[in-house]
From TrEMBL:
All copies of domain Peptidase M24, residue ranges: 20-258
Protein name per its UniProtKB record: M24 family metallopeptidase
A UniProt-annotated Pfam family: Peptidase_M24
InterPro entries: Creatinase/aminopeptidase-like (IPR036005), Pept_M24 (IPR000994), Peptidase_M24B (IPR050659)
Domain of life where this protein originates: Bacteria
Cited PANTHER family: AMINOPEPTIDASE, XAA-PRO AMINOPEPTIDASE P-RELATED
């Protein structure tokens, strides 16, 4: 008999938590493996094909969304006006160029959605943005646990980014979301996807939307009135995304919210968390970078 957890959303078992953690680690393993194989001249389309192949070879058959890759100023969604601009292009990597790999596989019925930021060789702007994102991870967790509304947390993250000298780039996503709920996806014989999104996983998000509309909450976390409530129990894929002079950076990982409002990050064994530990950064100890200090960094290509 499955064991219900006291530190998990209602009805979730130890096996469920392990399942979500396993697929999140699988997705990050994919991003790291593909990032290590990229070289000057690789295109965004080639990178997404590599990610999809890597995951399908390891048993992934369904998706919340297929892989995305953004190179250069596309990491900051420069000039993005319509949804199709998020899809991979023929943009080619060059030395020092920033890039983001983003993928949301479904494995054994569990969903992850991750974002991995790095650069092809040294890039001081990327390093600084990634350093300052440590503050956001700590702040978001603290604010959720304090019971603040999702809308207020979104606006507070906006203000934190402004103090750091950055732009909010997650506002460019559809509905301007900084996060969205994820859940289990029933196994299905047919696993269609359209416009890059898996229909089975999207069906669950839409059901959450209908239920939330009736009950006064939303599965989408943004700056709008629909998010003017504390985080509902479940798992949230959280992705604060900062931009500076045509360079963007983000992390994306799962946040677990319990019925009593307690919250925790699903896993600390993740690339960005290890990076911060290696650099001696501990979230709330990182106060951000003043704009005049950013001005001293090399202008991105």
């Amino acid at each position: 008999m499955a064991t219900l957890l006291t530190d998990a959303p209602p009805g979730m078992t130890a096996a469920d938590i392990d399942g979500f953690r396993a697929v999140q680690r699988l997705a990050y393993d994919c991003a790291e493996a593909v990032a290590a194989r990229l070289h000057p001249g690789t295109t965004e389309r080639e990178a997404t094909a590599m990610m999809r192949r890597w995951l399908t070879e390891r048993g992934v058959r369904d998706w919340l969304h297929l892989p995305f890759a953004w190179f250069g100023d596309r990491t900051a969604f420069t000039g993005f006006k319509v949804p199709h601009q998020f899809f991979a292009t023929g943009r080619r990597l060059t030395e020092g160029m920033p890039f983001i790999l983003d993928v949301a596989p479904v494995y054994n019925g569990y969903t992850a959605d991750i974002g991995y930021t790095t650069s092809l060789g040294p890039n001081r702007v990327v390093d600084r943005l990634l350093d300052d994102l440590a503050t956001h991870r700590a702040f978001i967790l603290e604010a959720v646990q304090a019971g603040r509304t999702l809308r207020q947390i979104y606006l507070d993250v906006d203000a934190l980014m402004a103090r750091q000298g950055y732009e909010n780039r997650h506002r460019a996503y559809p509905f301007g979301v900084i996060a969205h709920r994820v859940g289990k996806v029933p196994d299905a014989r047919f696993r269609p996807h359209a416009f890059g999104f898996g229909q089975n996983a999207l069906r669950g998000l839409l059901k959450d939307g209908v239920r939330g509309h009736r009950e006064g909450w939303s599965p989408l976390w943004n700056h709008r009135k629909m998010s003017d409530h504390p985080a509902t129990p479940g798992l949230w894929a959280v992705e604060p995304h900062v931009g500076f002079r045509g360079v963007g950076a983000k992390f994306e990982e799962l946040l677990v919210v319990e019925a009593d409002g307690h919250a925790y990050w699903l896993d600390d064994d993740l690339p960005h968390v290890h990076r911060w530990a290696d650099r001696g950064l501990h979230g709330t100890a990182v106060t951000g970078t003043a704009p005049d200090r950013l001005d001293t960094l090399k202008e991105p290509v």
